[in-house]
Write a sequence for this structure.
């Protein structure tokens, strides 16, 4: 039999259509190409364990060597020779010094990792493929750089000043580097949490590094300055010891990043 053409059926059908027209439409997105997961030190267990180990070393040595941290500014700025003539670091201070310097080298390794990705984006996939290998290599570079600087400053102090002046200079170097690691720690953590702000955070880290070097250079100038010709020697020192090694380390970092 033919379908019913009753007017009530037509009215009901029109009402149903109007109700559906007013309802929201849900669009089902079409599946796109899967994006690879970008690994970072924050999601790498060995890397984070290394960072935490540096912090634990500082925490474990703090209760015995806290006076060294309290005297940071004294070691960084003071050039009073009589006060340091018979001064020597205790075993407790030596322990916290080692822990603080280790923490500085570890934090610098993390910041170098972030800096390499921003300076040479083509190396980013290799870095993300083996995070801990690169982090460990960069931390090792930071340790070698610190040791090399310490040796050079030791030789320069022995050559151009006496034992007390050399000790004052090295105390300033170790204190400035120890404080630098504590200041760079939140920068490194924020760089991992907010990689999109990496360039800004790296700029902050660079500013802190430059500030620590300027403080150390200022103390060295006060120790070594004796007459007008000493200014020339000091300028040569700045070029040979402060600038050239940074250029060399940049090239070495790029070379290591390429072969790992």
């Amino acid at each position: 039999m033919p379908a019913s053409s009753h007017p009530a059926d037509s009215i009901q059908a029109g009402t149903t259509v109007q109700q559906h027209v007013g309802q929201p439409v849900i669009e089902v997105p079409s599946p796109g190409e899967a994006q690879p997961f970008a690994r970072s030190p924050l999601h790498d267990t060995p890397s984070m364990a290394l960072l935490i180990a540096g912090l634990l070393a500082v925490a474990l040595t703090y209760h015995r060597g806290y006076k060294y941290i309290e005297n940071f500014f004294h070691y960084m700025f003071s050039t009073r020779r009589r006060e340091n003539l018979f001064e020597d670091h205790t075993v407790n201070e030596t322990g916290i010094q080692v822990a603080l310097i280790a923490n500085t080298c570890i934090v610098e390794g993390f910041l170098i990792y972030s800096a390499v990705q921003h300076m040479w984006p083509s190396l980013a996939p290799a870095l993300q493929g083996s995070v801990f290998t690169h982090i460990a290599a960069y931390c090792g570079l930071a340790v070698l750089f610190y040791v090399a600087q310490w040796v050079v400053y030791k030789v320069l102090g022995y050559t151009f000043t006496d034992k007390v002046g050399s000790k004052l200079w090295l105390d300033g170097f170790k204190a400035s580097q120890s404080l630098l690691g504590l200041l760079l720690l939140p920068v490194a953590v924020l760089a991992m949490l907010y990689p999109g702000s990496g360039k800004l955070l790296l700029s902050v880290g660079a500013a802190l590094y430059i500030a620590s070097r300027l403080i150390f250079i200022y103390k060295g100038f006060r120790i070594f300055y004796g007459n007008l010709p000493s200014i020339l020697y000091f300028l040569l020192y700045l070029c040979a010891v402060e600038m050239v090694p940074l250029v060399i380390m940049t090239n070495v970092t790029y070379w290591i990043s390429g072969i790992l």
Observations:
- The two ends are 81 Å apart (CA to CA).
- The chain has a mean pLDDT of 81.
